[in-house]
Each structure stands twice: as C-alpha cells, then as structure tokens.
Amino acid sequence: MAKAVIIGSGIGGIAASIRLAVKGYDVTVLEANASFGGKMTQFTLPGGYRFDAGPSLFTLPHLVDELFTLAGRNPKDYFNYQRLPVVSEYFWPDGTRLTAHANAQEFAQEVETKLQVPKEKVLAHLKKVARLYHATEATFLHKSLHKLDTYLSTDVLKTLPALPELGLLTTMHAANAKAFTDPRLVQLLDRYATYNGSDPYQAPGTLNLIPHLEFNIGAFYPEGGIYAIAQSLVKLAEELGVTFKYLEPVQEILVEGKRARGVKTAQGTYVADVVVSNMDIMPTYRKLLPTQPAPETTLKQPRSSSALIFYWGISRSFPELDLHNIFFSEDYQKEFAHIFRQKTVSHDPTVYVNITSKYTPEDAPTGHENWFVMVNVPHNEGQDWEGLSTQTRQAVLQKVSKALGVEVESLITAERIWTPLGIEADTSSFGGALYGSSSNNKMAAFLRHPNFTSKIKGLYFVGGSVHPGGGIPLCLLSAKIVGDLAPASSNSVLS
To answer: Which PANTHER family match (predicted)?
Structure first.
C-alpha cells in the first residue's frame, strides 16, 4: 500500500486521513498533544462544567456527513446534529435586543420590528448573497485557486458573471453601510469578518457572503457539542485503518531531491509517499522544512486575530440567553483599530458568550450554565497578556452585567483562561492567530498558501492557515482539495 503521514490531528488532518484512507493509503497521523482535535478539544472544570475549548459554531454539516458517505457508512450511525431555531441573541449598548432567527423570513421580520429596517430589504439582501455564494463556492472554496484546471472548469462560467457584485473593490463595512443605514444592522453584518479573523473596515466585501451560511442554510448544533465532530471522525478513521500516534511531535519533513519522503520524530522515521501538514504553515516551514526555501511573501501576510477566552462555570441560568450570544461594543471601528493597528485590546470589546448547556444540559450542574466567553484580540507579538487579561475580564463583566441587569462576577464558581500565548503553545498556531493570515486586503484569498507546493512533490497542506481558510467548514474543504490532488493508490475503494 502507498503510505501517507499526516502531521497533526486537527479537524483538517482528521478529514484528510479519512480521504486518503478511502483512496487506498496506509495512513499514520502524528500528533504532538495527548489527544486529537487541535483547537477542537474539550475539558471540564471543577463542579461538573464541560467546555468545547475552541470552535463553537457549526455550519455546513453536510461536509461532515460527506466523509461518512465517502467511506460507505451511514452518517447517522456516528454523528447527529440539529438545526438551530436561533443563530444568536444580540445585545447593543443602547439597550436594543434582537433575536437572530435562523430562518430568513423570521430574521427579516425581527429586524423590521426591532430596528425598523423594512423586511423586504433584508430578504432581498439575503437572496443576493445566496445567489452570489452559489455562483462562486465551487470555484473559490472546493478547488485549489493555484491550479490552471480550476479556471478551465465549467464552474467558472457561473462565477464570472458574479464577480462585479462580489465587492472585491470595496470593504465589508462600506458595502454594508451602503446597503443599510441602521448602524446596528451594519454592525451585525460587519461582525462576520471575525469568522476568519479579519477587520470589516479593511477586508473586502466578498466576506459579506458569510451570513448566507447561517440565515439561508442554517446554524447547527452537534449532539454532545462541537467535540463530537472530531470524536466521530476519528472513530471512522480508525475503522478505515488510520493509525493515530499521540505525544509524538514531528521534528522534520524529509525531502530528497524535490520530493517528500516522510517525516522524522524522536521515536523514529516514517517513510511515506505523501506527507500532509495540518500544522500552521509558518512553523511547517520554519521548523519542519528548515533547509527548504520558504514562500516568504506568503509567510509575511498579516496574521489574523486571536482570542482571549474565559471559561466560566455560572451558578444560575439565564433564560434570555441562547447557545450563541453577542454583546456589542459602542464603537466597532475603534475596537478593530485596537486589534489590527494598535495590536491591543479595546477597553470596550464586543463579547461573545457560548452556552452549550442550553442544548446539552449535562454540560453544567442543574440550574447552572457553562459560559465560554470570548473577545477578539490581536495575535501574540509580545503583549502583556496577563495585564490585558485582567483589564479585559473587568470590561467583559461590566458589559455583560449591565446588559443582563445582574452582577455576574459573584456567580462564577469555576474559571479557566486561554490567551493567544496559550493558543500558540497548545496548537502550534503562529502567534496564536486563529486563522493563519487575515483577509484584510482584496488579494488575500489568492495570497493564502495553496494546499500543495510545486517545489516539493508529495507534500500537501490542510487546515486553517492554508486555502480556503479557517473555521470548521473551510478546514474540511482543505482536506477535500488535498484528497482530490493526491494521486490515488491502487488499493483505493473508489477505483
């Protein structure tokens, strides 16, 4: 059998292992940590509070189902999820509250009722982003942007007419401010820049397609939480013969001539026909390919934002909160200027609160809730994260307490904090940047590292730091692209 070695067991690496196993490869996954998942891991705090450590939003679940179907399995035997009736609860400093229903009609009606924006105008906007998404997804998300045959595909015939409407020459914020005059709705739509760690005042209007995923397709919740995605896929991978080895960090990717020949760890050498790195692209080149020329222009692209996360066990329940909750800042432009220009944290940050015990009651004791509280922050460049954590914690408590009319700090019975330093140490994400490079210029998608390198045959890349980007769906699509690029083995179940 042809052999494949995958470096890292984040969601992209796990998905790649399944796709290569189906193609007939004998696959070994080498993981530096004690378990799989990368950022998609879980932990518990004293008192019985369970948390998903990283990703908290789940969209495009068919990309997970597809892996089971590809392997000849019934997805429902491994993994189940439900469509959420509400995407998020929104809170503004002026006291406005809005329930973002996961149904375009209901969302548009709520916007009209709470923000006095005509329902028909909101629906027309969502219809437009749906049309543009369907015209472009096959070209820009499902295929490599760095292969000629992508642009010779018939899918391009659907993409070309949509290009003038994609907002490539304007920013997200400018496009949203042109479409709507209510600053609260503009802020709500600008927020989607954070889904790939970018700044809506710099990122191209193309990112305004992201709301389509939630309002037209839907947001979902996996039974057992986000960690269940990784759990179910590892189970499938092992059934397909994939070997996972933990606490075995890769030290070097072995290259002979212009071909990857395997990897080296402290325990030995793994010879392979295909090597896939699920490690952030920066340490992949700097640490694992120290003698190979690196794509410096790509590696110098500005990093995405990171996160400062407070995990709190809360000793009461809040019926006005849902699974996803957003407490907006007063001045969004100032907040993003702090993150991307001043490289610090605003004194008035937007706060995201995720509470899985709303859907999985076992995640917290009866009458309690598990709060995953996140603030977008710059990636690590040597900031005083201890001081910034203390400052931000107080700002978060003040904002959320005011919005809810309850003093929250006294309700905290257990706590853990994850800073960009910790994210970098635990996941090898350079600087703790959650999505590799940001999308803060119109060419960012094309400057993101491809899923292969023309300089080293047999070497591929998956995960949030390479094309098509970060987040669960895009990491899964990076694995799909690699699965399509890697040559089939003679043992492929697809042959």
So the answer is: 4,4'-DIAPONEUROSPORENE OXYGENASE, PHYTOENE DESATURASE
Q: Tell me, what's the pLDDT at 153?
A: 86
**Assigned domain for 68 exists:** no
Say how far apart CA 9 and CA 312 lie, in whole Å. Answer: 27
Q: Give me the percent of the chain exceeding a pLDDT of 70.
A: 99
The sign of the torsion formed by the CA atoms of 226, 251, 470, 417 equals positive
Q: Are 21 and 98 part of one and the same domain?
A: no
Lowest mean pLDDT among 53-62, 142-151, 401-410: 142-151
Both 179 and 314 in a single domain? Answer: yes
Name the helix (H) or strand (E) containing 392: helix 385-404
From the list 237, 238, 269, the residue with the least C-alpha distance to 252 is 269
Q: Report residue 84 CA to chain centroid gap.
A: 18
Containing domain of residue 280, as a range? 1-34+246-297+442-495
What is the Cα–Cα distance from 435 to 306, expressed in whole angstroms? 8
Strands 86-91, 97-101: pairing is antiparallel
CATH number assigned to the domain comprising residue 263: 3.50.50.60
Q: Do 207 and 349 have their domain in common?
A: yes
- Beta strands 26-30 and 3-7: pairing type? parallel
Of the candidates 471, 356, 326, 316, the residue with the CA atom closest to the CA atom of residue 42: 356
Provide the pLDDT for residue 148: 83
Judgement on whether residues 268 and 349 belong to the same structural domain of the protein: no
Q: Is the pLDDT of residue 446 over 80?
A: no
pLDDT at 491: 62
326, 345: one domain: yes
Please give the average per-residue pLDDT across 438-462, as a whole number. 91
Q: Is 492 exposed, middle or buried (0-12, 13-18, 19+ CB in 10 A)?
A: middle
Distance CA 289, CA 286 (A): 6
The answer to whether residue 77 sits within a structural domain is no
174 and 202 assigned to the same domain: yes
153 in any annotated domain: yes
pTM over 0.90: yes
Mean pLDDT, rounded, of the chain: 96
pLDDT at 182 over 90: yes
Tell me if 232 is assigned to some domain. Answer: no
Same domain, 350 and 478: no
> What confidence tens digit (pLDDT) does each residue in 184-237 have?
999 999 999 999 999 999 999 999 999 999 999 999 999 999 999 999 999 999
Neighbours of 463 (CB within 10 A): 33
